[in-house]
From TrEMBL:
Signal peptide range in chain numbering: none
Name of the protein this chain belongs to: MAP1B protein
InterPro entries hit by this protein: MAP1
Domain of life: Eukaryota
MF-aspect GO terms: actin binding; microtubule binding
Gene Ontology biological process: axonogenesis; dendrite development; microtubule cytoskeleton organization; regulation of microtubule depolymerization
One GO term describing the cellular component: synapse
Species annotation: Pycnonotus jocosus
Length: 130
């Protein structure tokens, strides 16, 4: 009894879906915290994917695949835009490997070549209109 743990935990408990305009995928898109259930329940027009640490698997290919699997279970073809905060090998490979499925599911990956320069720093940016 006392020592039986489930090997799979989910960050989002089962229940009805939530519809949001913009969602930042938690914990640098690490698969320890985000799974298919997250994307089945947390439905958004825009998802921000952060993470630029290949050693920590951030962003995680499993999380990106979970988006596809979760979105496939929605009963609508709502447009979804994925906004990566960094250009990473994981994101590029996932984009190329799953491009056809992304199109089928009405998922667009937004790449931005805009840069904001403020005093001594600069960073990539993209414009989102809600």
């Amino acid at each position: 009894a006392g020592n039986s743990k489930s090997s799979k935990s989910t960050a989002v408990p089962p229940g009805p879906p939530m519809y949001l305009d913009l969602v930042y995928i938690p914990n640098h898109s690490n698969s320890k915290n985000v799974d298919v259930e997250f994307f089945k329940r947390v439905r958004s027009s825009y998802y921000v994917v952060s993470g630029n640490d290949a050693a920590a698997e951030e962003p995680s290919r499993a999380v990106l695949d979970s988006l596809l699997e979760g979105k496939a279970q929605w009963n609508c073809n709502m447009q979804v835009t994925l906004i990566p905060t960094h250009d990473s090998e994981v994101m590029r490979e996932w984009y190329q490997d799953t491009h056809e499925k992304q199109q089928d599911l009405n998922i667009m990956v937004l790449a931005s070549s805009s840069t904001i320069v403020m005093q001594d720093e600069s960073f990539p940016a993209c414009k989102i209109e809600l």
